[in-house]
Structures are given as C-alpha cells and as structure tokens.
C-alpha cells in the first residue's frame, strides 16, 4: 500500500497556517515532502525549513525532501533577463524552462540555502518535455525533437551523478506530466531508455552505479494511462510518486475529485454586501456581486474560478473602490473579503455536485466522499509508493491521514 506525502505547490513560509500544517503532517507520520524551486518562487522550500526547525535531528533526518528544477519564473525570470541562463526554452511570456547543467547547479545551490540543508535527498528534472513542446511549435520533426531532448537529459544526468558524488544530493529522477500521456500522443515522454542513460551517466561520472531512483507523474481515477509507466518503474526498481490525485483531466475538461459542503454563512455575507453597496457610488460593485451570485453554479471546476478571481474579479473590485477614503475602504474591504471566502466555498460545492452528475458512470462504485474514493483508488495500487497531496491546513492533514488509518 502506498503512503501519503506532503505536496507544497501553493505553500509559503509567510503563512503560519501552512508551516503549522507541515509540522502536524510530520508529527502524524508523513516522511516525504515534495517541493520545487518554482513553487511560490522558493517560498515553499523556506516553509519546509521553518517547519523542520521544530524537530530534533533524528526526526528531521527521517523526513525525505524531494525538490525539482527546470522552471524559469518569478525571480528566476528577472535573473535570466539580467544574465541569461543556458539552453533556455521560451514556453510563454512568463514561463521559460531549462535543464542545462549550469542552471541545475544554480537552482540546487539556491534550494539548499532555502531548505537550510547541505544535501537534498532526491532532486528531480521538472517536466523536461517543455523542449518537445517548443521544438514542435518550431516545426521540428518529432524524432529529432526527442533525440535532442534526450541528449539534454543525458547531459544533466551526468551532472547530477557528479552531485551525488559531491554529496549535495543523494539521488535524482524526473517529474513529468508527459509520462502519463498515451504512447501515441505527440506529447508522450518515452521512458524505457532512461535507465540506460543513467547507467552511461554514472559511468562517465565515475560512479559504480547510477542514482536515478524516482519518477513523478499524474495519476488519478480519470487519468490512468500513467499506471503503465508506474508498472515499468517498479519493474526496474524505481520509486513512483503520484501528483494531482484530486485534480483530474478528462479530455479538455478538469474536475476536482472532492466533495464540498455548502457554505452556511454565504447568504448572510451576500445580503450584507449587497445592502452596503446598494447606492450610486458603489453600483458597479453591487452589479458584480449580483452577477457572481447568479453564476456560482456555472464554473467548470474550482480552478476556473480561482483563475477568474485573479484575472477579472479582483481587478473589477479594485476599480469599483477607487477614490474611497481609507476608513470606508477598510470597512468595505472586510465585507468583500468575507463574501469572497464564502463564495469560493459555494462555487466548490456547486462544482462537486456537477462533477457527481457528469462523472456518474465513472463514480458509480463510489459510495463515500469523492476525495476518499479518489485517494483509496491510489492507495490500493502496488505500483505507487507515494501520493503527493496538498495539505495547507492542519484540518486537511488530519482528514487525509485518517484515510490511511
């Protein structure tokens, strides 16, 4: 049976609740924490360090830290514009990517500092298939793109073997969404030759055997193609870490495999905010709140709402409150903040109801909560070692660990 691990995708050291959740998870028996240099622009790694300060050396040593490199975003993007990194793939305006030796060494040094460690237990290439995406966009033949990408992977494997010898990492691996694609998918990342590459890399680095130990990929109730990769990994002595256990993609649609209760406070906060903003000065805000209420059941999944919140809702609210004096702004913002917290709960509730309807056939055997069914599906897979799950609140930690029991 697999185990739960702590995923830190949206964890930051600036939120005490997140740090406490890590502490609670370790106390509850979690022994693997997954992070990356680009998670919250390094703040996730800082949160891990802050949490582990609460434990003695024996407990800290028992907790394995897995980190990753590859993404150029945030502060890395600013650094790249000042002094460009090597072999960079430009995926979008705000997201570049590199798995060059020099970039790996730069990121490893920074991660060690943020984590307050001298050695990282396992260091992963983070989605190396970004090179494939970029090459295909440039009309490069698929076979040529794959050959070039594997040349890059081999070069950094040699560098990672050298770091194993130096003691800055204990092992390495690859985290790839493309491991979970069908073999005939143009974005599929072939994995059968990776161990051969690792063997050759170890030989060049002067190591007796390779230290390629781990793969990470998405697998969930709807996305099961990755189970083939997981079976291959176990047959070859590799460890399998699964991400996105509750955020599932089916075709072009995303689903959150979790049930959420309806907010008991939503309508109180809705009516309060409507009453306060029912005047000429705040008519724009009033109209927005009305529209949000009318459309709370129309989001495809909770991720759609989160994107819409930051791209549309918050800018609209900020514009609506322009020119307001500081005291009135603070008062009104409190009401807006309370409303948005409860509104998200309502959206999540509506999405979970919709998911139950749309996935009725797939969920027919699910008689408990969606999240319990989704996680038990993975817990029962012998080819999976760890299920990475975000537990940003202590209550999440307790709920998740209770499933294991």
What key phrases describe this protein's structure?
405 residues, three-stranded antiparallel sheet, 13 strands
Write a brief caption for the model.
With 405 residues, the chain is of the alpha/beta class.
Strand order of the largest sheet: 1-2-3-7-8-9-10-13
Shape: globular
Mean pLDDT: 94
The description of the largest β-sheet is: 8 strands, parallel, barrel
H-E string: EHEHHEEHEEHEHHEHEHEEEHHHHHEH
Strand composition percent: 15-25%
Poorly predicted regions are none
Fraction in helix:
40-55%
Broad structural category: alpha/beta
Oligomer category: single chain
Count, helices: 15
Number of strands: 13
In angstroms, what is the radius of gyration? Answer: 23 Å
User: How many angstroms separate the termini?
Assistant: 12 Å
Draw up the topology in text.
Layout: E1 3-7, H1 16-27, E2 32-34, H2 43-52, H3 57-62, E3 64-69, E4 71-72, H4 74-82, E5 89-92, E6 95-97, H5 101-115, E7 120-126, H6 130-137, H7 142-166, E8 169-175, H8 194-205, E9 212-218, H9 226-235, E10 239-243, E11 247-250, E12 253-256, H10 266-276, H11 283-294, H12 302-320, H13 326-358, H14 370-379, E13 386-390, H15 394-404
Parallel strand pairs: 1-2, 1-13, 2-3, 3-7, 7-8, 8-9, 9-10, 10-13
Antiparallel strand pairs: 4-6, 5-6, 11-12
Helix pairs in contact: 1-2, 1-15, 6-7, 7-8, 10-13, 11-12
Mind explaining what this structure looks like?
This protein is an alpha/beta fold and 405 residues long. The protein contains 15 helices and 13 strands. The strands form three sheets. An eight-stranded parallel barrel has the order 1-2-3-7-8-9-10-13, surrounded by five helices. A three-stranded antiparallel beta sheet has the order 4-6-5. The protein has a two-stranded antiparallel ribbon with strand order 11-12. α10 packs across α13 (326-358). It is globular.
């Amino acid at each position: 049976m697999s185990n739960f691990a702590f995923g830190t995708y949206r964890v930051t050291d600036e939120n005490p609740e997140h740090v406490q959740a890590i502490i609670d998870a370790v106390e509850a028996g979690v022994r693997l924490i997954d992070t990356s240099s680009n998670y919250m622009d390094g703040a996730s790694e800082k949160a891990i360090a802050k949490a582990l300060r609460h434990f003695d050396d024996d407990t800290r040593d028992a907790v394995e830290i897995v980190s990753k490199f590859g993404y150029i975003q945030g502060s890395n993007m600013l650094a790249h514009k000042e002094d460009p990194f090597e072999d960079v793939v430009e995926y979008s305006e705000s997201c570049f990517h590199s798995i060059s030796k020099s970039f790996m060494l730069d990121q490893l040094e920074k991660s060690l500092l943020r984590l307050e460690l001298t050695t990282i237990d396992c260091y992963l290439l983070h989605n190396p298939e970004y090179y494939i995406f970029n090459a295909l966009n440039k009309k490069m033949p698929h076979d040529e793109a794959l050959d070039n990408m594997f040349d890059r992977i081999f070069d950094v494997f040699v560098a990672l073997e050298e770091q194993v010898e130096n003691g800055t990492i204990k092992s390495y691996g690859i985290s790839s969404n493309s491991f979970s694609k069908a073999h005939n998918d143009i974005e599929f990342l072939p994995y059968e030759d990776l161990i051969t590459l690792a063997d050759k890399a170890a030989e060049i680095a002067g190591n007796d055997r390779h230290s390629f130990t781990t793969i990470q990929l998405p697998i969930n109730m709807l996305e099961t193609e990755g189970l083939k990769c997981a079976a291959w990994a176990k047959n070859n002595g590799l460890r399998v870490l699964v991400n996105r256990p509750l955020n599932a993609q089916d075709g072009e649609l995303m689903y959150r495999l979790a049930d959420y209760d309806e907010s008991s406070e939503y309508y109180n906060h809705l009516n309060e905010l409507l009453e306060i903003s029912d005047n000429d000065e705040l008519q724009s805000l009033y109209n927005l709140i009305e529209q949000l209420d009318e459309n709370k059941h129309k989001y495809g999944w909770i991720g759609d709402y989160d994107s819409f919140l930051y791209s549309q809702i918050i800018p609209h609210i900020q514009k609506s409150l322009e020119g307001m004096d500081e005291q009135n702004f603070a008062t009104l913002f409190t009401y807006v903040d309370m409303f948005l917290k409860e509104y998200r709960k309502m959206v999540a509730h509506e999405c979970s109801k919709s998911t139950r309807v749309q996935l009725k056939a797939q969920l027919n055997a699910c008689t408990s909560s969606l999240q319990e069914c989704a996680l038990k599906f993975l817990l029962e897979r012998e080819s999976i070692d760890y299920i990475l799950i975000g537990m940003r609140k202590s209550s999440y930690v307790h709920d998740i660990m209770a499933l294991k029991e």
